[in-house]
Amino acid sequence: MNKKKLFSQLPSVEEMLNNEKILNLLEEYPRSLIVDNIRKSIDNIRKRIISLKDDEINSFYIDYDKLIGNIIENSTNTYSLSLQKVINATGVVIHTNLGRSLLSDSIKEEVWETASRYSNLEYDLELGERGSRYSHLEDIIKKITGAESVLVVNNNAAAVLLVLSTLAKEKEVIVSRGELVEVGGSFRIPRVMEESGAILREVGATNKTHIKDYEEAINENTAALLKVHTSNYRILGFTKTVDIDELSKMGKKYNLPVIEDLGSGLFIDISKYRLNYEPTVLDSLKKGADIVTFSGDKILGGPQAGIIIGKKEYIEKMKKNQLTRALRVDKLTIAALEATFRLYLDEKKAIKEIPTLRMLTYTMEELDEKAEKLYKMIESENLDINLNLEEGYSQVGGGSMPLENIKTKVITIIPKKISVSELERRLRLCENHIIARVYDNKYVLDVRTIFEEQFETIVKEIVNSVK
Ligand SMILES: *Cc1c(COP(=O)(O)O)cnc(C)c1O
Question: L-seryl-tRNA selenium transferase N-terminal domain: from which residue to which, for each copy (predicted)?
Answer without folding.
Answer: 7-46
